[in-house]
Amino acid sequence: MSTKKLTVLSTRPSWQRTALLVLLGVVLLGAYTWAFHDVFAAREPGAVDFFVRYEGTRLYLTEGLNPYSDEATQRIHEGIYAHEHTNLRPQHAFFYPMYTVLLIAPYTLLPTYAWVQAAWQVTLQVLLVAGAVLTLRYFNWKPKPWLLAVLVLWSLLLYPSARAILLGQLTVVVFFLTVLVFWLLFRGEPSARRDVLAGVCLSLSTIKPQMQFLIIPLLLLWALKARRWHFIASSALSMGSLLIVSFLMVPTWLTQWVEQVISYPSFDAVFPPVLHILTHEVFPLGDGVMWALRVLLTIWLLVEWWQLLRDDDDQRLDWALAFTLVITHLLAPRTATTSYIVFLFALLPILRWLQRMHPLAMFGLMAALLAGDWLLFANTLVGDAEATIMFIPLPLITLLLLVLARGAMVRSTGQPATP
Predict the structure, then answer these.
(1) Second label for 269, Cα 20 to 30 Å away, from 92, 158, 191, 390?
(2) Is 342 in contact with 353 (CB distance < 8 Å)?
């Protein structure tokens, strides 16, 4: 491009420059989606976890079929296994709150599932990159362009991230929404607009309640203490709206959803809770030790919350958020390695802490976490399924690193929100 053209572009009004950049981004994203479809999605049908939710949504929107019904479950099963479905019992069902349909509905407009898969997996890649970059900005880390590219690529290739994208998991959406909520609430000048948007995002993140069952009460308790009424009202109203719309779509959805969740083990292999794996399979310690660990971790978490809320200590806030996200998956009755993607909110500031000590320490941890999980997966693979040992290393390592980096994370926080 000539110097004259660059000068003309730079002198355009800001809204025109923004519009041109948005247009360029849409074109590039469209080209990438097209290439992703031709090179990958059309040749390797996948994203099976997303297909289940997509097919349930499509059946509801096009045929009015209740996504929780036995007929919908059978149709989903047939869509996955094709001619082999007659020899297998159904192994997949909708399993998500009814308002998940609202997020997936736009993808049902695409002509084939290959295009749906391509568009969805590209969406997940964009959201993961956006979530990682937003996390860096949240912690006021502005790495050089080459290091930013390395950190983003590392975030994409980590075992939980790559697996979530390959399976089409909604965990990526929850990760992005969670980081966006943190950014809106705790960075920048507090405003009614930011708080309202944060409440909407928090409500949407409940599509996977097992990932949010601890962070939501912490945020609401903090908001009560800080008198952030717009956030509280927005969370309540948007959650209420999602529930009302869901009941209007399928009046019986809540009881049917609960029934499906309860019956989940009958559909597919369900991994035990992380602490059960740790105390029964990795170390034969038994139920007593498992429950003792649960009690101790719960007490630890509550003490951290109490100190945060009692002292009005905003410097403690960021560490408490990261700590809560990690503890969630140690205490959850059911989790998945794809849900560990939220650990990026803890791991990226830890990498910053290590970089300040020595760049080799940062790159060493990045290499160890990246290669370690993938090597463990390759050496413990059971058929085409991951082994239970995959649930253990990352949460424990992340928790240990959080404890070690606590002082540095508290001292290096960005601009804390003020009531």
Answers:
(1) 158
(2) no
